[in-house]
Amino acid sequence: MRGSELVEFKAFAAVAEHGSFVRASEHLGLTASAMSQTIRTLECRLGVRLLHRTTRSVSLTDAGRQVLTRVQPALQELDAATREIEDLKQRPSGTLRIVTPRIAFVDHLQPVLDGFHQACPEVTLDITISDAITDIVAHGYDLGIRLGELLEEEVVAVRLSGPLRQLAVASPAYLAAHGTPTHPEDLHRHSCINWRQDASPTLYHWEFEKDGQQLTVAVKGTLTLNDRELAVAAAVQGLGIAFWAEHRVRPFLASGKLVALLEHWSLPFPGFFAYYRKQRFMPLSLKVLLDILRGSRRRARATP
Fold first, then answer.
1. Which pLDDT score, from 0 to 100, does residue 2 have?
2. I need a labelling partner for 25 at 20 to 30 A (CA). Which of 4, 105, 204, 220 fits?
3. How many other β-carbons are positioned within 10 Å of the β-carbon of residue 242?
4. Which residues pair with 147 in a beta bridge?
């Protein structure tokens, strides 16, 4: 394969992965016009159309799907070989792409950023903060962070935290005015602060469990946010009942600004895990980051 052909196939695979000429060109460091010309050259050389193009979307033709199935494994092997050669120098470099919920970034990634950059000064961390459930392989991420109950079987997982639980909380002023719920179903009669996950068309349903009975409550209220920290702040203001991680609301409980509700219905669930796809070759930068995360967890568990 000539060098120009390799460039053409890499450009085609990038467009197929990102579903956009603009995003693919940004990923490869090309202009959108150069990317478009490269794809046209490849289609002319192969004599088939690989992509359906409209002003709003890009999709694979049948021929495009067949070509991608054949060339993508080869491109991944070439990329892995290149990264392996780089790592033989014992100087991790390049970009490590990570997707993580905001709470996991603050609790687990942010505290180790300085240590990682000291260990790998030539590595760029490209971190996406998102609460959405993301396919790290399809979206080109090297590492993801996710709750244990949401992990897929085919990934390798590294525990970052112990079990967590969520609590419903409200301000003393709100409870004095509206009463205190004693059962999850009582929440239907209260103003609750809803949360919407990134890119999700539906609202998050609050989950409770007691004595083997599981309840999912679709709460209602006059405020919906996509940031749980802001929901807690709204609860402190007396705007309704919020639902968030216990360790995040604990300072407000200790100060008396919030009151915990339905605690007997709030059971622990698996905490956060870092996860990555099974692979024959792991970038040295990813190995270093995982070692640092494991060390941070050990220190946290050893702290009284």
1. 58
2. 105
3. 31
4. 272
Do residues 261 and 166 touch, judged by C-beta distance below 8 A?
Answer: no
- CA dihedral (112, 196, 191, 207) in degrees, to 10, reads -70
User: What pLDDT is attached to residue 304?
Assistant: 52
Beta strands 206-210; 213-217: pairing state: antiparallel
Rounded Cα distance between 20 and 39, Å, is: 12
The residue behind tokens 């539906």 is 202
The confidence score (pLDDT) of residue 24 equals 86
Kindly give, in sequence order, each residue whose CB lies less than 8 Å from that of residue 75, ignoring residues fewer than 6 positions away. Answer: 9, 10, 13
Amino acid type, 129: I
Which parts of the chain have pLDDT scores under 50? none
- Three-class DSSP category at 145: strand
State whether the Cα torsion 273-277-278-279 is positive or negative: negative
Report all structural domains of the chain as residue ranges with CATH numbers, in order of start: 3-71 (1.10.10.10), 94-163+271-302 (3.40.190.10), 166-265 (3.40.190.290)
> Where do runs of H (alpha helix) occur along the chain?
3-18, 21-28, 32-46, 62-88, 102-104, 113-119, 172-178, 228-236, 246-255, 284-302
Residues 6 or more apart whose Cβ sits within 8 Å of residue 137: 277
What Cα–Cα distance (Å) separates residue 44 from each residue in 8, 13, 37, 49?
11, 16, 10, 8
Tokens, residue 244: 């968030």
3-state secondary structure of 222: coil
Q: Which two tokens stand for residue 212?
A: 């083997």
What gap in Å lies between CA 263 and CA 277, rounded to an integer?
A: 37
Residue spans of alpha helices (H) in 97-181? 102-104, 113-119, 172-178
| pLDDT value at residue 108 | 94
- Cα within 13 Å of Cα(59), Cβ side: 5
Q: Report d(CA 141, CA 74) in Å as an integer.
A: 18
Helix 246-255 to helix 228-236 angle, to the nearest 10 degrees? 20
Identify which of 264, 247, 249 has the alpha carbon closest to the alpha carbon of residue 171.
Answer: 249
